[in-house]
Amino acid sequence: MPAALGCLFLCFFWVKTRAQTPTYYGQVQPILLANCTPCHRPGGGAPFPVLTCEDATNRASFIAHVTARRYMPPWFADPDFRSFHNQKILTNAEIETLRQWAGGGAPCGIPLGEVAVLQQDFEKNHPAPDQEVPMQQPFTIPGNNTEQFRIFILPTGTKEERYVQGIRFQPGNLELAHHARLMLDTTHLLRSDDGSEAGDTATQFTRLGVRLASQFWNGWVPGNFGEFYPDGFAKKLPANADIVLNMHYSPSPVPATDQSSVKLWFAPKPPERLVKPFILDENWIVNQPFVIPADTVVSFFLRSPPIPTDISLLSVLPHMHLLGKSFKAYALTPDNDVILLIKIDDWNFKWQMTYQFEHLLKLPKGTVVYAEAVYDNTAANPANPHNPPRETTYGWATFNEMMNLIFEYVDYREGDEGLSLFEKF
Ligand code: HEC
Q: Of 4, 18, 186, 222, which one's alpha carbon is 20 to 30 angstroms from that of 418?
């Protein structure tokens, strides 16, 4: 190529790429709306909003940095193993767009008019809950810079059995609420535990071994605006049940208060299809005992009993604590078909997410579920709560360990494979 022509070509290319620095309103906002604003908006749980150009421009290089490292958006399940309905993963091209935008001075460009952010507003879609169940009193999070894991008992006081079609956990202190697990108790034996430390051996919760009416009723992390099922689907709320709330608060340098609540939308009549939990816990581990010696990396294998009837899975939630490293689950049908469920290579205790299947996922009668979890109890694990490492076993406290695989399911019906139950936020 003659030099002049080369220059012409290259200079043109240079001018063209310069001219094409992505703008906020042109290319960047759509990426942020799809992947960030469910959390990075007022009330969304993340530390700052990115809804306007000004919000985003001020943090452009930070945004480019955390996305390039894939630290944000938080997503831990391997999409090549299985992709999920609530999956948020940026493509390499999207990461590159954010990088070029930040590197090119983070221009705003021209707004194209009002943007439809409202669809992400759960409150707008589902106005008034039928009942709101608050924590009995505000809780003071101590200003001692330590994470807090607390149990709260929220009596519902409902006279009759109810069916819940919509459920939304409403954190009272969005800056400090990090995750929440809701369970149900009908014995009322846990009421004196209100406000106690999760895992404290003195609590009724730990001592009595109460059989909960539901060991898992709902899970919340930032960005979760609630679950609202289509007509005909609902969860049971037994009469006069207490909601047992297990709260994780981030550390705070100053005292702060929280009074979270649970918003409920009831189905007008008993549902045709009851949404139920299916929980595999440490009892199903095949290589017992569930003990992780100090200075070791250990794998535990869990195997379910054969599933007694055809079921359709809605969601999956693996649960481990700080020593957790990786988690993998799959199912084997009686015909020896392998159904891949979830694979997390880099477990992050802070993000106890509920992974929603894209469509109802059928497990035929006789299917066996297998899971494998790896725990790193060495000093090389930066999350290890003990230094030097200590032998660790089952318990509810953060410094204990757990291995749970929690599903929500309905009994199978013809055609479930095409059904998608969840709204998009
Ligand atoms: C599921 C909710 C959620 C989504 C989706 C999400 N974030 Fe975040 N983000 C958070 C939370 C919560 C934090 C606070 C730090 C933490 O808890 O890990 C945070 C922190 C950040 C930080 C500060 C990091 C630091 O070290 O302080 C940046 C920058 C950020 N997010 C950018 C983004 C961008 C850009 C996207 C989309 C591409 C995004 N986030 C998607 C919840 C989310």
A: 222
Exposure on the CB side of residue 60, measured as CA atoms within 13 A: 23
Centre of ligand 1 to C-alpha 398, Å, is 23
Q: Cα of 72 to ligand 1 centre, how many Å? A: 5
Give ligand 1 pocket residues (Cβ under 6 A).
32, 35-36, 38-40, 45-47, 59, 62-63, 66-67, 72-74, 88, 90, 222-223
Confidence at 209, pLDDT banded by 50, 70, 90: confident
Q: What is the DSSP letter of 126?
A: S
> b vs e for 40-64, b when ≥16 Cβ sit within 10 Å of the residue's Cβ?
bbeebbbeebbbebebbbebbeebb
Question: What integer pLDDT is reported at residue 137 of this predicted model?
Answer: 97
Q: Whose CA is nearest to atom 43 of ligand 1?
A: 39
Closest Cα to atom 13, ligand 1: which residue? 46
Q: Which residue range(s) make up the domain with 190?
A: 123-273
42 lies in the same domain as 141: no
Measured CA to CA, the distance from residue 19 to residue 16 in angstroms comes to 5
Q: Residue 45 CA: which ligand 1 atom is closest?
A: 12
CATH number at residue 296: 2.60.120.230
Within this chain, do residues 8 and 93 fall inside the same structural domain, yes or no?
yes
Q: Extract the tokens encoding 418.
A: 């095409």
